[in-house]
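Quick board copy: two proteins, each given as sequence then tokens.
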Amino acid sequence: MRPTFMGFEIAKSSIFENQKRIDIVGNNLANASTAGYTRQRVETAAISPSAYSTRISSQRVGLAGQGVEALGVGQVRDEFLDKRFRDEYTKASYHSQVSEILQDVQSALGDGKDISDTSGLFGAMANIYTSLNDYCSEPTLETQANIVLSAFKNITQVLQQMNSQLDNVAAQHTYDTSINVDRVNEILQRVAHINQMISQDFTVVSDPNNEHFRPNELMDERNLLLDELSSFADINVTQKSDGTVDVDLGGKQMVKGIEYNTLLMQKNDDGTIGIRWRETGEDVLFSSGALKASLDIINGRGANVQSKNESSAQGIRYYRDKIDSFANALMEVANSCLPEFDADGKPIPGKYKTLLGEKQPDGSVSAKNSATAANITISTEWQEGGAGYFICSRAEDMRYYAQQISHRLTGADTTFKAPGESFTGTFEEYYNDTLSKLGSDISFHEGRRDAVSLIADDFQDRRDDISGVSRDEETANMLMYQKAYEAAARVMTTLDDLLDVIVNRMGRVGL
């Protein structure tokens, strides 16, 4: 005969095990909406009747079937899907960040279609065209000449405002990048700290080779942090048998057990930014992610790259070159149309009046160098001479010169030169080409963001199918465990009845 109370122990183990299963089901349902929560399950195994003989040994049949044992509470997680999701999430974050910065650049450059808005470049050009045409009808009228001066002042202010807005865009995203770098460092520090807590957990210390049962809540927090980290940069996560993880970022190991490295963002003298390893001072070589997007666009100068700190992406610096080229071409055209006159009132060959120039750091105005959107302004001669400087001589018919300026600014081809590229066409065509490139870049990155996001969402859905909580599935499990619990309780009741027969009724005659 088997031991008298072994049956009770079997039933008791089943009751305890099913009670724990119901507890874990309740925990799953309670955390169904908790961000980063991974579905948990109780791992069980049958209790072996003897450590020295198998359960089918003939002499041990009486001890076979000793119940169930709960090995621990584990998680349902797929490392492959984690990696694939993070890889695609990194790419989606890169294109999302690029399109976001370029949209800010687009806002700074304004709408190229609205010619009625004189605060925009096309509106300012249209205002010059209108003022010159009105001046042609009365070329000696000071009022009309002052309107021309006002129109030219307006376009220089528009260009300066564009440059200022691009400065603001660069400054804002430089600040945002520094915040992102700080957040990356916080995540790396927190992951290393969680590694330390997991490695010190009782279940790990008692059996460091058991990789199945770890502090699940800490692992959920760490996985959520690693998902966030993957939005900033490309990462590779290596799971270790003691429950800790190693994290590579940008091709370098950033977390190793409880040790971690950090990043440092620096502003360079030329206005660019760099992200370096704090430990070595070397540049981080990102392959994707929001940090790489910020570096590419803030430092991006397209084919106009002038230093090793700049990138070949068409970013803020590239579009600043575009409006600088516009400003310089505007100055060259304006300063080559209005001739100077000699004492006899005749035009001096090859000599033209200076209408526009560039403001120097000392406050003076010069027209000898290349103007930029930041420093283009009305020449000192025009500012001091006013209407009379533009009219030149009331005895002369100025229609021709005004018409020539108007034609050069609106109808004639001009060569726009920037480092690494040039464009020949009208001012309108050049600016349309610039806005078209910008719109095309935004459209491309938005399209790539949407396409990659669909892939990332697919992996996220597949991961949730495995790791997420299904209320229907958990409810079905709860009912199943409840039935098993009731069945085990019924077994105990039956065993109690059998024991009552053995103790109180066996051997009694007549019963």
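And the next:
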Amino acid sequence: MNQIFNIGKMADFFQIHASALRYWEEAGLITPVKNNENDYREYSVDDLMTVSDILFYKNLGLPLKQIHEIEKTDVSGHQKLLEEKMGELKQQKKEIDRRIQKLQYHLNAISALHDLEDHPFKITDIDTECIVPFELIEIDKLKKYIDDPYLYSRVQHSSQPQQERRGLTVSLQEVNKIPKEQILWKKTETKYVTCLMKEEIAAGYPNNLLSLLETVQEKYRTGYIISRFLLCAQENGKTYDFYKTYIEIL
């Protein structure tokens, strides 16, 4: 005698909701017989294989309509369908990889912020080669900023810290392609002291840069000040832009 399963046992067996089995039945993917006495659905061993196939294709990301049609297609049609799904998944993977990269940028910024809090005024090399002017209406540069906000930089000089230029850091490969007149700042062999600059998002945008500069100037002569954006966040009820600031020591 063939083994028969009711809808509850089928749902338990495959760890799915009974409503899914009913929906697949309505879509024509599975056709259990109905008991003449009580009108209950009865699933056979063959139905186990059918449900297994449905779950296999669902796990590939195929919609029910394509699952319903896939067994009616020839080999070339089958191949085309799966190749299209493969291309779609690869594109989704690229998008996920980009999002992971952007999340990692943000996590790196938070890690840098904590490191600056724990180890202020550390002497180090600067982590950029060149900074070029950046205006918000420059769409290509704005797209780079959107991909990685840490590229946004401010260039000042300790002799006139009130004068600042907005810029975008560029890669080593791009430096040699940039005309000299388009460069705000370019790396030299000097060292820098790193510190955490906080600028409040409020009238006048008050920040602690002059205080940081005075501390560094107690020991060193100073030159350029490069501030690279980390993140915007609240602290003690106020909203700040946080920057990793490099103060050149001469």
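Board note added afterward: The longest strand covers residues 222-235.
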